[in-house]
Hints:
This protein is mostly helical. The protein is built from two helices and two strands.
Amino acid sequence: MATAKKNAVEQATTFFDKPxxxxxxxxxxxxxxxLLAQRAExxxxxxxxxxxxxxxxxxxxxxxxxxxxxxxxxxxxxxxRGAPRGSGAGVARGPVAAKYRDPDSGATWSGRGKPPAxxxxxxxxxxxxx
Length: 130
């Protein structure tokens, strides 16, 4: 057992002590640029094939809708990315008018977010503004 361990240590030492082959920086960079170009080509091919397959799938779906007269049940619309229109998602909202006022300090609160200490846990109707 000790001999096997000793041989393994010697092999590892020999491996790490060997001089490493050096690759010129120009060659490494050109390999990198080549790989990036190959990736760009593959991504373009993937996008083209996906587009074609999606078009074929949609055509099959349309044929089935026609064949079974499902026009009322199935409506085709263009897909939208992100939040639906009119949802207000992603749109910065302006400040909101104050809804509550502390009669002692005159401090106000809009009713959004964490309630301030002067209104927390109390009946808010007594603090309503107008």
